[in-house]
Design brief:
three-stranded parallel beta sheet; alpha/beta; TIM Barrel; six-stranded parallel beta sheet; binds zinc ion
Length: about 450
C-alpha cells in the first residue's frame, strides 16, 4: 500500500466495489475438506488456551510476506541494525517479535517509467547489502527450506526474501522476469495500483484514459505460466476481481495475496470478497492479512477518506519542493511518507481487534490453512492498529488468537506454516513444469516479449 495512491483510489472505491466479480470460477483444487476444522465463534472454548501463547510464538516460524522497508534502505541508506522509532521492520524489532522471514518489497513506482528495471535492481541490491552487512543476523533466502534452515540452531537469523510489487516492473519481457527470478525474487504482484499492459488493477478501472484488458491479456497468461515454471509465486494483491478469477483459472500453482484483507470488513476494492476467499481456498492458496488501518477497519477507511484532499495537496507540495531543491529529480517515496505520517497522527487508530477480526473472518470463510500475515510494514505511514507499532509487536497477534480459541497448530499455521505449504507447492509445480520445459530451453530472440 502506498498512501497517495490509496487516496486516489478511495475516490473510486464505491464504484469498483459495485462491480460484478463473479466472472469465472477456477478448477477446484484441494482445501475444501480442511475448512471443516475452522473454528467458529459458537464453538470456541471458553477456558484459557492449554498452552503459553508467548512460548508458542517464540517456537514458531513467523513469516511476513510484505514490507516496504526496502525504500528506506535504498533512498535513505537506512541500516537495518540501527534503532529508529519510525521504522516498523529492522533487526532488533524482528528479533523482539521473533519474525523469522520477511519479504522485502521490490516496489517500483510508476513514476520511474523508462527506468523500472533499473529501479528494481537498485532495490534488490539494497536487500543484498543489508544481508552482507549483517551476516550473523540476516541471510538471503530463496526457498521454503531456506527459511526453515535460517531459523534452525541457536543463532536464528532473519530470512530475507524479495517480492516484486507491480507487474509493470518486468517491462513486458519474460527474459527480464527470468532474470528477476535468478536474482532471488520469489513472488510478483501482477499489478500495483496501476493497470499495466497485460493485467488490470483494482484501482483504476473507472479511469477511461487507462487501457484495460477484461482481466489479463494473452501475454499476461504467458507471464503467469512462466512464473509457475520458474517457481515464482503469483501474487494477486492489488489486482481487479476479473484479473483474480482469470489468474486462478490460468495458474497451475496455488496463488498468494501477499498483503490483502477482507472486503466484508472494510469495503476497499483492493480487499478480497468472501467469494474470492473461498475460490482462493479451492486453489490451495493463501491470503496474507494486511495490517493497514484503512484495509482492516471500515470506520478508519471513511475517516481517512475525509482527509484525502488535504493530504494529497500536502504531498504534492512536498514533492514539488523536493524537485526544486534536487535539480528536478524524482522525489523518493519517503518524501510522501513523511507528509502522510503527519496526517496519520491526527487520526484515531483502530483497535487491535480490527486486525484480529480480519484474520478470524478469513480463517472462517476460507479455512485457517489459508490465512497468514502480510503486514505492509513501512508502507502505510504508521497507520496501524493500536498496539501494533512494529514487528516487535507480532506476539500480540498470537496472544489474541489464543484468546479466541485457536489451537497451537492453527496459530503456527497462520504465523508461517500455511505460507510454507503454499511456497513448497509452488516449488513442486515448478519442478514438474521444468520436466516438460527445462529452464534454458527458451527460443532465442522473438516470442519472449509482447
Ligand atoms: Zn501494496
Amino acid at each position: 500500500m502506498k498512501i497517495t495512491r490509496l487516496i486516489l483510489s478511495l475516490l473510486v472505491a464505491s464504484l469498483a466495489f459495485a462491480q460484478n466479480h463473479s466472472v469465472e470460477m477456477p478448477v477446484s483444487a484441494s482445501g475444501g475438506a480442511a475448512q471443516k476444522e475452522t473454528p467458529s465463534r459458537a464453538s470456541l472454548p471458553k477456558k484459557p488456551a492449554a498452552f503459553d501463547p508467548l512460548a508458542l510464538h517464540r517456537s514458531a516460524i513467523v513469516i511476513d510476506s510484505h514490507a516496504d522497508t526496502t525504500q528506506r534502505m535504498l533512498d535513505e541508506n537506512y541500516d537495518l541494525d540501527t534503532p529508529d522509532p519510525t521504522i516498523n521492520v529492522n533487526l532488533p524489532k524482528a528479533k523482539a517479535g521473533n519474525l523469522g522471514a520477511e519479504f522485502f518489497s521490490i516496489w517500483v513506482e510508476p513514476k520511474y517509467k523508462g527506468q523500472y528495471v533499473r529501479r528494481a535492481m537498485d532495490l534488490i541490491d539494497a536487500v543484498y547489502q543489508q544481508a552482507g552487512r549483517h551476516p550473523d543476523q540476516m541471510v538471503m533466502a530463496f526457498s521454503a527450506e531456506d527459511i526453515v534452515k535460517a531459523r534452525r540452531g541457536p543463532h536464528k537469523r532473519l530470512a530475507a526474501l524479495m517480492g516484486i510489487e507491480g507487474g509493470h516492473t518486468i517491462e513486458d519481457d519474460l527474459r527480464v522476469l527470468r532474470d528477476f527470478y535468478r536474482l532471488g525474487v520469489r513472488y510478483m504482484t501482477l499489478t500495483w495500483y496501476n493497470s499495466n499492459d497485460w493485467a488490470d488493477s483494482s484501482e483504476d478501472l473507472d479511469n477511461k484514459d487507462v487501457p484495460h484488458h477484461n482481466g489479463i491479456t494473452d501475454f499476461g497468461v504467458q507471464v503467469i505460466r512462466e512464473m509457475n515454471r520458474l517457481g515464482m509465486m503469483v501474487d494477486i494483491s492489488h489486482v481487479s476481481d476479473k484479473t483474480f478469477y482469470r489468474t486462478l483459472v490460468v495458474s497451475r500453482a496455488p496463488v498468494i495475496a501477499s498483503h490483502s484483507a477482507s472486503r466484508a470488513l472494510s469495503q476497499h476494492p483492493r480487499n478480497m470478497t468472501d467469494d474470492m476467499l473461498r475460490a482462493l481456498a479451492r486453489n490451495d492458496g493463501i491470503c496474507m492479512v494486511n495490517f493497514f488501518s484503512a484495509f482492516v477497519d471500515d470506520d478508519f477507511r471513511k475517516t481517512f477518506e475525509a482527509h484525502r484532499d488535504e493530504a494529497k495537496q500536502a504531498v504534492a507540495q512536498a514533492q514539488e519542493e523536493y524537485r526544486k531543491t534536487h535539480h528536478g529529480q524524482i522525489p523518493p517515496y519517503t518524501v510522501e511518507e513523511h507528509v502522510t505520517e503527519e496526517y496519520a497522527r491526527k487520526l484515531p487508530r483502530p483497535p487491535l481487534k480490527s486486525l484480529i477480526d480480519n484474520i478470524d473472518h478469513i480463517a472462517q470463510v476460507a479455512g485457517w490453512q489459508h490465512v497468514g500475515l502480510g503486514s505492509d510494514f513501512d508502507g502505510v505511514s504508521g497507520m496501524l492498529p493500536e498496539g501494533i507499532n512494529s514487528a516487535a509487536d507480532l506476539p500480540k497477534i498470537t496472544v489474541e488468537l489464543a484468546k479466541r480459541g485457536y489451537t497451537a497448530e492453527q496459530i503456527k499455521g497462520i504465523l508461517g506454516e500455511n505460507f510454507l505449504r503454499v511456497f513448497r507447492k509452488v516449488e513442486a509445480v515448478s519442478r514438474e513444469l521444468q520436466k516438460e520445459k527445462p529452464l534454458g530451453a527458451e527460443p532465442l530472440g522473438a516470442g519472449e516479449n509482447r
